[in-house]
């Protein structure tokens, strides 16, 4: 492939310059959580509440070989054991009024508990594939 000579600015749509904040966040990401190696991590939003009164909570999503953990600062909003995941899918749902976006839907089921989680993040297909690999 021949280079076009655009210097720092590459017009290819696949490439994107990362901000200093993004680079800093990546450097600060923990390599392990509570002794478990982090396989994948990234900024995400989690829908808390019901469909009629949904609140989206921004934070960070971490995947280990054992569980999926969502942290908002130092607060752990949820964790899901990968053993308890029954289904993962990408669905098109409301994000804000009159705007639908793809979201990762996770169905958790254990003996006495059945929950559905909705997450919004970059690279949903990659998240889904990686989660399914370890679930």
Structure in words:
With 135 residues, the protein is mainly beta. The strands form two sheets. It has a seven-stranded antiparallel beta sheet with strand order 6-5-4-3-9-8-7, with helices on one face. A two-stranded antiparallel ribbon has the order 1-2. The mean pLDDT is 81. The chain has two helices and nine strands; from the N terminus they run H-E-E-E-E-E-E-E-E-E-H. The longest helix is centred in the last third of the chain and has 11 residues. Helix content is 15%, strand content 49%.
Mean pLDDT: 81
Unreliable stretches = none
Total helical elements: 2
Question: What level of helicity do the residues show?
Answer: 10-25%
Structural class: mainly beta
Largest sheet: 7 strands, antiparallel
Please compute the radius of gyration using only Cα atoms: 17 Å
Report the portion of residues in β strands: over 45%
Write down the overall geometry: globular
How many distinct beta strands? 9
Kindly report how far apart the N and C termini lie: 39 Å
Question: Strand order of the main beta sheet, please?
Answer: 6-5-4-3-9-8-7
Q: Helix and strand succession?
A: HEEEEEEEEEH
Keywords:
49% strand; globular; 7-stranded antiparallel sheet; 135 residues; mainly beta; 9 strands; two-stranded antiparallel sheet
What's the short story on this structure?
The protein is mainly beta.
Reconstruct the topology from this structure:
Blueprint: H1 20-28, E1 32-33, E2 36-37, E3 40-48, E4 55-63, E5 67-72, E6 75-81, E7 85-96, E8 99-109, E9 114-121, H2 124-134
Antiparallel strand pairs: 1-2, 3-4, 3-9, 4-5, 5-6, 7-8, 8-9
